[in-house]
Amino acid sequence: MFLNQTSHYALRAMTGLAVSDPENPIRSRELAEKTDVPSHYLSKIMRKMVEAGYVRSQKGHGGGFVMNIEPKELRIIDVLTAAGFDMEDQPCVFGWSQCSSDNPCPLHPVWKRLKDCFNDWACHTTFEEVRQGGDEIQWEEFRVSD
């Protein structure tokens, strides 16, 4: 869809933190393994999440990453934005450099609807919803252990 690899990895990493025990920091290596994010990539993403204030990094024995914000206060769009994703930067499907409502490509009206739906979802979905999951999601298999 719209998301680049960095955005996917950022969502995976923050999901890993959201479903884990908030009292126990998760080591980078363990988070990388559980979320299937390459460790060098995870370091870059987590630095962005720390800079945004969403994650706290603890060094030393017993260190790792913990969420610095309640999952109910952290929206999908917040993580995407911190990871560098910008919905407005999405290219025209036809590759037009000047595609807009004033100068639309043939797909512009329907593509805009999809972008608006995605944006609405990302702005109104929190990591609390991700943490709670649904009956169909087997989070126990995913949960990061101590």
What's the total number of strands? 2
Shape: elongated
What's the CATH class label? Mainly Alpha
Examine the secondary-structure arrangement and name the CATH architecture.
Answer: Orthogonal Bundle
Distance between the termini: 34 Å
Q: What is the count of DSSP helices, taking H or I runs of 4+ residues? A: 7
Walk me through the structure.
Helix 1 crosses helix 3. The protein has a two-stranded antiparallel sheet. It contains seven helices and two strands, in the order αααββαααα. The protein is mostly helical and 146 residues long.
What descriptors fit this protein?
146 residues, mainly alpha, Arc Repressor Mutant, subunit A, elongated
Lay out the secondary structure.
Blueprint: H1 5-18, H2 28-35, H3 39-52, E1 55-58, E2 64-67, H4 76-82, H5 108-124, H6 127-132, H7 139-142
Antiparallel strand pairs: 1-2
Helix pairs in contact: 1-2, 1-3
Short description:
With 146 residues, the chain is mainly alpha-helical. 48% of the residues lie in helices and 5% in strands. It has 7 helices and 2 strands; from the N terminus they run αααββαααα.
